[in-house]
Amino acid sequence: xxxxxxxxxxxxxxxTLDELETPALLVDADILETxxxxxxxxxxxxxxxxxxxxxxxxxxxxxRRQIELGAVGGTVAKAGEAEVFLxxxxxxxxxxxxxxxxxxxxxxxxxxxxxSLTVLxxxxxxxxRWAAAAxxxxxxxxxxxxxxxxxxxxxxxPAEGALLLAQEIASTPGLELRGVMTHAGHAYAxxxxxxxxxxxxxxxxxxVKTAETIRAAGIDCPVVSVGSTPTVRHSSRVPGVTxxxxxxxxxxxxxxVDLGVVPAPRCALTVLATVTARPAPDRVVLDAGAKxxxxxxxxxxxxxxxxxxxxxxxxxxxxxxxxxxxxxxxxSYRVGDRVxxxxxxxxxxxxxxxxxxxxxxxxxxxxxxxAARGRVA
Length: 377
Ligand SMILES: Cc1ncc(COP(=O)(O)O)c(C=O)c1O
What we know:
Helices cover 33% and strands 23% of the residues.
């Protein structure tokens, strides 16, 4: 067997953390389950459906578990991700970014088969492009109109500002306006939990108001879909919201802890790394660099580039394949030691890895493929 294949085979058959070659991406099985159950409960308590964002894990096994626990379907960011999950048999998928390339649109209409594939429209040009492809399709294409509630990324303005495009979509043959959606990603720059709560409330209220404006014009608008992990506790409680789409909650990460969304022990994802050098008493070098951890620093500047699991030390510098931790000169790190690092941003980290090693304490219980890894088109 070529050595690369041998290494891969070894990684897939390792049964304990000690046997794993590093760096490797670990998922704590118990924390994952806690996170999945908690969000499903939150959705049930609020009387909304859960359509989790699958771009966080890109993993068929986790998506299946979410559906088993009660999720109505999933959300993806990209056409390529949609294709992976549709091919795996999921039958209710929302693509929550504007897809405007006519080739991708054609492909998606083909790939959906008998599944429900809902798409997002937020511009007149986007509407025209979906209309052109949908006119020849056997079934209407369900559409959500994206509304900007303050993130200022994509989306039409709320309330009256959304009406014209809503009317256009609703009167387009081949398209079926299913409702409105938004994502309050600006909550990631909030300075306090109180500010997150305020952003979450506004997210729900502005979107409900938009749906009411559309309905007042005589147009059906059943779906009112909000969601991000920081705001979902607040937005889901706004009367009139029907659906939430959090993604990051399956793992949580350094950014969620820094925002005060969860305490550190709720982070399910860690990178297992090896100390490869200690060239100075205050400097420990790991075999996990930017290609393993990502360079995401979060908005606050407090996070460094990752934090030791159950510890305080930060990764302070990354090159491609090296992570440098600043440590107390008396700390006991030695070459060959294993360290677990909580990544700052789980969603981007997962996309750098082929496998998730599902661990319960020191045992590896399963190895799951990151099936939609690299599907960024
Ligand atoms: C459109 C959309 N919906 C939902 C989410 C999920 O947000 P989070 O990962 O904070 O839970 C995202 C995240 O980027 C998003 O862009």
